[in-house]
Amino acid sequence: xxxxxxxxxxxxxxxxxxxxxxxxxxxxxxxxxxxxxxxxxxxxxxxxxxxxxxxxxxxxxxxxxxxxxxxxxxxxxxxxxxx
Length: 83
Fold this sequence. Notes:
By secondary structure, the chain is of the alpha+beta class. About 40% of the residues lie in helices and about 35% in strands.
């Protein structure tokens, strides 16, 4: 019984991990995010939707440094963290 419980828990956790990682953005979202990132003086980056916000990692900004940016579901800027 105990082994079955441990196995069930392990399977549940393993199945849930991809949900924690966020999802890829759609083409429409990508177009809007490119514009939002550009408005912050930055380019590039890896874009994901990680509810409740968009996260763009490893963007290069006009100061030459790399940052992680986040935007809300309306593509409004939330924050900028240096890498």
